[in-house]
Amino acid sequence: MSFQLPAEFKSQPTPFYYYDLALLDQTLAALTAAARPGNFQVHYALKANSNLPILQRIQQAGLGADCVSGGEVQRALEAGFAPNHVVFAGVGKSDAEINRALAADIFCFNAESVPELQVLNELAAAQGRTARVALRINPNVDAHTHAYITTGLEANKFGISLSDLAGVVDGLDSLPNVELIGLHAHIGSQITELHVFANLSRKLNELQTWLEDRGHQLPHLNVGGGLGIDYQHPDTNPIPDFGAYFGMFEQHLVRRPSQQVHVELGRAVVAQAGTLVSRVLYVKESQQTRFAILDAGMTELIRPALYGSHHHIENISSQLPALAYDVVGPICESSDTFAKAVQLAETRRGDLVAIRSAGAYGEVMSSSYNLREKAEALYR
Ligand SMILES: *Cc1c(COP(=O)(O)O)cnc(C)c1O
Fold this sequence. Notes:
Layout: E1 16-19, H1 21-35, E2 40-45, H2 52-60, E3 64-67, H3 70-78, E4 86-88, H4 95-103, E5 108-111, H5 114-126, E6 131-138, E7 160-161, H6 162-171, E8 178-184, H7 195-213, E9 220-222, H8 242-252, E10 260-265, H9 267-270, E11 274-285, E12 290-294, H10 303-307, E13 313-315, E14 322-328, E15 337-345, E16 352-355, E17 376-379
Parallel strand pairs: 1-17, 2-3, 2-10, 3-4, 4-5, 5-6, 6-7, 6-8, 8-9, 9-10, 12-14
Antiparallel strand pairs: 1-11, 11-12, 11-16, 13-16, 14-15
Bound molecules: pyridoxal-5'-phosphate.
GO molecular function: diaminopimelate decarboxylase activity; pyridoxal phosphate binding
Pathway: Amino-acid biosynthesis; L-lysine biosynthesis via DAP pathway; L-lysine from DL-2,6-diaminopimelate: step 1/1
Function: Specifically catalyzes the decarboxylation of meso-diaminopimelate (meso-DAP) to L-lysine.
């Protein structure tokens, strides 16, 4: 099996993002079945892809929304997510963002520092409200993923470090407009070694017991997102193993009676449903290297340039035997390279190329660098 572009899109101006909504629906069905409604509450991390047609499907599948900016909170509400299904995380929430989220009466703020808790308390008091808060802890658990998308180590800017937690919890007594309802952790993204989630669970178990000893019962635990996808084999593994992911928490997280466990998945929900489709502008051969120069670049998909990440690439126009190509974009940066020395069916000017698994952290990270126009999103 290989990638099929719907026939009606073959003459579209390139580059464009193509979203396979049937695959998105299948992924959501697998996810909600594995979460067993009532057992895990799933929030979708909008930052992976915030296009309205995608959000609306995710909302209709019964997921909540995990937001990391005021703009995302607003987008989630526009897409139809109920305020009591919206959580707001982020290490640098502005006063304006907090005020709007308070006024919308969202379910929970994932708070990341003492000064943030103080601001939440002040702004909530001024509105005559109480801010429900989960403390985002930095559990110092290694996610075994790329350094730029590791978030749960002491060296990372995220969360409250374990050594500060006692002071933070004691300080809550002086914040009457903040209500502690849970613990939150998010240790990284594109996690494929699932035992990492067992380590996280054990850390949360210890913390929970420690908090209970101090008189804090927690109705909610939020274990974050981070489940990885198979960038190498998008056709054989289009849907992540959600059962194995939830199984780690079922096995290792000690849940109190009637306690709700929340997860926040982004990439695992949308990555495989998106493809960046581009046309070959030129094939340029030097003595050492054969370049396929595309009309898409790091402005449409920055992950290879930013993280050196792998995306499966196919020439969907050519049936010829394969040759090795460096696949590059038109942007004036040497890092504007999608892949080096990959095998593609022999490529000619005008061929269509599919860059797979681009549904997460693709379009949302696009830019207009070099004054490029925004690529269109097409759905089917
Ligand atoms: C980015 C993010 C997520 C989603 O991460 P994925 O790896 O895409 O699942 C979840 N929670 C928080 C707080 C995040 O910042």
